Amino acid sequence: SLTKTNDIFIHLACISNEPSFELNPDLGKSINFDCFEEIVNISKKNSIKRFILASSGAVYGINDSKNITEETITNPITDYAKYKLQSEKILFNHTDDNFIGTAIRSATVCGYAPRQRLDVVVNILTNLAYNKKEISVFGGDQLRPNIHIDDVCKAYHNFIQADSRKINHNFFNLCGENHKVSEIAEIVKSCMPFNVSIKTTTSDDIRSYHLSSTKVKEILNFECEKNIKIAVNDLIHSFKTGLLPNSMDDDNYYNVKKMKNINLI
Hints:
Elements: E1 2-5, E2 8-11, H1 18-23, H2 25-34, H3 36-45, E3 50-54, H4 79-94, E4 100-106, E5 108-110, H5 121-132, E6 134-138, E7 143-148, H6 149-161, H7 164-167, E8 170-174, E9 177-180, H8 181-191, E10 197-201, H9 214-220, H10 228-240, H11 255-261
Parallel strand pairs: 2-3, 3-4, 4-8, 5-7, 6-10
Antiparallel strand pairs: 1-2, 7-9
């Protein structure tokens, strides 16, 4: 949703991520892009001074580089990613000294949260490992950047307080760790209190990118504090203590299932 903090807007509203968007591309475009410039204009007219856009590392598309910085040429391969990039450009067309705009190109979020998603890579594999004792890996060589939910929250707090001169008309990668999907599976397996098997099959998901967070460290002195292992152990604790009941079946944890259930396709 769109959250107002005094004179600051944090724009989080979108159909996320690619699989959810592709269920209903017209709906995705209407929410993720068509209304975006109007939201920017309304914010500016209502004296909002800082507009923070939740963009995505997906704007880089397929890139085998071990060090994708903000200087890397973008190559979005899905409509979801393309509209994220176009939204950044719209925002920057409106920024000035009185309307500060910045975009955060985040890695995939992992770990436990009150509004839990179990359809993103670390959380998917952890759920399978804990509840099925078997991890299904599709492909495995794709590079995936991830970030712990607590670090995401800390980062946004940092951007709220940052010197406007450092962030205006600017975008930042935000990532904790980069691993192949197969490596993430091994990390998840190592955290389990019992033996877990890993089953690998082919995949047509070719998205692959490796994010560098050097810029946000150098400009804002921000560094992530939590890793994938911590996220996995947080989820294990949540499963054990009943914080995530029916984690394999409850549609509320899965965007695609939820959208189908409420007829958004």
